[in-house]
Here is the input.
Amino acid sequence: MSLRIATRSSALALAQAGQVAEMLGGVELVEVSSDGEPGDKSRFVHGVERALLNGEADVGVHSAKDLPAELPEGLAIGAVPAREDPADAWIGVGNSLEGVPEGAKVGTASLRRRAQLLAARPDLEVRELHGNVDTRLRKLAGEELDAIVLAVAGLRRLGREEEISFAIPADSMTPAAGQGALVLQVRSGDEETAVAVAGAGDETALRELTAERAVVSLLEATCSTPIGVRATVASEAMSVDAFVGLPDGSEWIRDRVEGDATEPAALGAELAQRLLATGARDLLDRAEEFAA
Here is the structure.
C-alpha cells in the first residue's frame, strides 16, 4: 500500500519524516502546520494528529519527546524506530562541562536543561533562547552567547553534527523522556497501516520509550516540566534514570531503578513512586510556580 505520512514543515521534521519514508518506501509526505496552535511543545503534534484523524494521512511522524503522555482518542503508537543518541549537545566554548569558562552565557528554552546546568554549574548565566535548530545556531553566532544546548539527535538528523563541542554526560544532564526517538502514530483500528509500519519498529527503542513515558505520565509532567528520564536496555536488563529539579538548580532529586527489560512500564512506575516518595511532587509543583 502507498502510505501518506503527515509531518510538520520544519527542516528537522522533514528530515525525520524523510528517514521514515526511506524505511517504509513508496510514501507521500503530507506537510501540516502547527502555526497558531496553543499550548507548550505538544502543539507541535496537533497538526499531524488532526491530519490522521481527518483521514488526510495514514501515519504521523513525531519526535517522541514532543508527544504528550496521553494520546487522543482514536490514535495509537504504531512503531518506534531504532533510537538516535538521546544525549544533549553543548555547542560553543569549552570541551567539557567542567571546562566551560566561569560565568559563561548559555542559551536554552528548556527548563530541564536550565535546571541541570545550574545544578552542575551555578555560576553559568542561562538565558532563554527559542526557535528551531537553525535559528538557535544563528543566534549563537549573532548574540552575546557563549554556548547553546541542543539535542544530539536533531543535529545529526540535520547533518550538523560538526557543530557539537561535546555531548553532556547523562549523569550531569539526564535527557528528556523520548529524546532521540521517533514515534510513528496511526489510527486505532487501522490494521493495514499498523502492519505496514510494524517493520520499522525497534523493540529496544519501544521498551525504553515505554519506561520513560510511564515515569512522565505518573508524575503528571508536561513538556515544560524540569524532568529528565533515560531508560537504557542492555540485553534483558534495563536501567531507568531520572532527574527532577527546580529551574534555578537550587534543589533536585536524582534516582535510578534497574530490572527486567521486558517489564518497562512496571520499571517506570517503580521509579515514579520512588521519586514521589522523596519529594518530587513538591518540587514539580514549585517548578510550575517558577514557570508561571
Q: What stands out?
A: The chain is about 35% helix and 25% strand. The domain at 88-168 is CATH 3.40.190.10 (D-Maltodextrin-Binding Protein; domain 2).
